[in-house]
Amino acid sequence: MRRSFKALPDFPVADLRPLTTQVHGVDLHDDYGWLRAPNWQEAMREPDKLPVDIAAYLNAENAYYETAMADTIDLQDQLVKEMRGRIKEDDSSVAHKNGPYAYSTRFDDGAEYPIFIRTPQAGGKDQVVLNVNTQAAIHDYFDLGQTAISPDHKVLAWAADVNGSEFYRLSFRVVENGTDLDYHIADVGSVAWADGQTLFYVRADTNHKYNKVFRHTLGSDPADDVLVFSEDDARYDVDVYRQRSGAFVTILTGMNDENEISVIPTSDPTAAPVVIEPRTQGLEYDIDHQGDAFIIHTNADGAIDFKVMTAPVSAPSRANWVDLIAHEDGCRIVSTIVHKDWLIWIERRNALPRICYVARGQPIEVARVIAFDEQAYSLSGDPGLEYDTDMFRFTYTSPTTPSQVFDYDLSSGHQVLRKTQEIPSGHDPLDYVTVRTMAQSHDGAQVPVTILYHKDTPLNGAAPCLLYGYGSYGMSMPASFSSGRLSLVNRGFIYVIAHVRGGEEMGRNWYETSKFSGKPNTFHDFIAVAQHLIAERYTAPAQIVIQGGSAGGLLVGAALNMRPDLWAGAIADVPFVDVLTTILDETLPLTPGEWSQWGNPIASQQAFEDIHAYSPYDNVTPQDYPPILVTAGVSDPRVTYWEPAKWVARLRATKTDDNILMLRTNMTSGHFGKSGRFAALEDAARSYAFALKVTGR
């Protein structure tokens, strides 16, 4: 039964500072645009630089949240205690062999962060490569970025973000003595070693665009680093990585639906990058090196669900690409992994993944398959850095099954379970039920639904439900295990993942049909899942709490506007809700690359009308909304803090109910909330406490 969660009488009220702009002949009125700080880029790095009036409003909202949720403090503490009890405190990973060492991570009792260690394969003591706890101790926020050991195993390149802005500082740790070299490189994204002295890295500009590749010689002044590649197209971001074979450093530049790749031989790191195939509208590809060929995973020739091709290293352009694994409609080839003598690929059929592999030179028809029998599960490759090996590592998990790490011998088909995620407080998979069902959407599309509940939960329509969705960028939501969500399920909640259009669970078309003017399909799918759950008596309208983050927050915002009557409450984490304003602003670092998803409303009136019709901020109307919890982060470069802040201000001024509406802004972190494996539990506990409160549990 829904429990009343009413607004407190002293809720914050944002100032009205009206501003009207005209786009394509349409007047856009915005009373809350002032919440975007003029110095937002500076404030992202240093949150205390936020203008006084904006900081005062965000802090007032935070104080209101604390007062409104004060009666859940004991519950939150209990939830954190439960979730922490399911985490093995003194945990360690399965070691990966890499040259003369085996590398792994270890957590000590009570530690928030891992310790990277290595062990000589010839025998000897463990050696600490990097203790992240030591580095994080002096910061309120700490996120370890990329780590990369040099090919001679002497130096670890490691990067860290200390405020949530996703600007990472690169350092160099001499492993033998455990000290860093006396210089750093600011604003670094990905890195790739060519040899023991030469490193390539991508650097961001002041607008947070990772668009330049530099070559660095270890120990030299970074001011002397050589610019190797510069991307001038604002839609594109740049990444670098080392091929598993060790023969090439790869430069990948692209956006969501188009890219270009160049390679530099590690035997001659000063060589100019060689383009595999110049950028072509709509062409996506990635490469793996194997012997005298490149293995190419691509959507070329209309292969919407992708295929695999080969090309000679000596002549890698598209004119020389030859089919290796043919395209098959509805079978999405997700990725390829190449060893010296093996080709492995992960594909997805009917919303379930499987791993396929074949020996180099053998016909694809003799490929073997690794798959599992549960109704819903997740598989992911974890191949490590070894190239000349017959061993392939993968991880299996399901909503009821904690993660299991397997080593699989590709030559014999023999697999060994190397590790099962331990739940110290206890977990019996037989106590839980996972169901995969389908919900029919507004246009007849069948939407996959993953359902998890405790075996003792009655399916009579009375159970509360947390319904989660995302539905953007082709990101498929895995049907994986989460020890944290058991705190809801054990209290009688049914936990549901709606695999709505916008992901690729049902193939690439599942994504393509929710772009541009098709974006509302995502929202209709989500609502259809809720109606299906009600019809099948899993839950009832007064018992459904919806949750989504980032682009999933857009989904939540749209679902609130379209069918507010269906929901007992809503949790919108760093929600992308001011879509039209953001996609109209090409000065924001992520906007140009987003046009391939939503359309370009600057150039196209149709794109403008499409986005204007569903953008949650622009479609708030005078109607009753359920209780809502919204989160934001001042340092967030992905969904800037003012989007959720503006949305909350407009909702509060417009809606006709007296239900609670709360905005909680993390004033010292960004898109991903608190850092550390235990500190992050506090964010989950707040969300779960809200869900329990609004459903009367």
TrEMBL record:
<protein>
    <submittedName>
        <fullName>Protease II</fullName>
        <ecNumber>3.4.21.83</ecNumber>
    </submittedName>
</protein>
<dbReference type="InterPro" id="IPR001375">
    <property type="entry name" value="Peptidase_S9_cat"/>
</dbReference>
<dbReference type="GO" id="GO:0006508">
    <property type="term" value="P:proteolysis"/>
</dbReference>
<dbReference type="InterPro" id="IPR002470">
    <property type="entry name" value="Peptidase_S9A"/>
</dbReference>
<dbReference type="InterPro" id="IPR051543">
    <property type="entry name" value="Serine_Peptidase_S9A"/>
</dbReference>
<dbReference type="InterPro" id="IPR023302">
    <property type="entry name" value="Pept_S9A_N"/>
</dbReference>
<comment type="similarity">
    <text>Belongs to the peptidase S9A family.</text>
</comment>
<dbReference type="Pfam" id="PF02897">
    <property type="entry name" value="Peptidase_S9_N"/>
</dbReference>
<feature type="domain" description="Peptidase S9 prolyl oligopeptidase catalytic">
    <location>
        <begin position="480"/>
        <end position="696"/>
    </location>
</feature>
<dbReference type="InterPro" id="IPR029058">
    <property type="entry name" value="AB_hydrolase_fold"/>
</dbReference>
<keyword id="KW-0378">Hydrolase</keyword>
<keyword id="KW-0720">Serine protease</keyword>
<dbReference type="Pfam" id="PF00326">
    <property type="entry name" value="Peptidase_S9"/>
</dbReference>
<dbReference type="GO" id="GO:0004252">
    <property type="term" value="F:serine-type endopeptidase activity"/>
</dbReference>
<keyword id="KW-0645">Protease</keyword>
<feature type="domain" description="Peptidase S9A N-terminal">
    <location>
        <begin position="21"/>
        <end position="419"/>
    </location>
</feature>
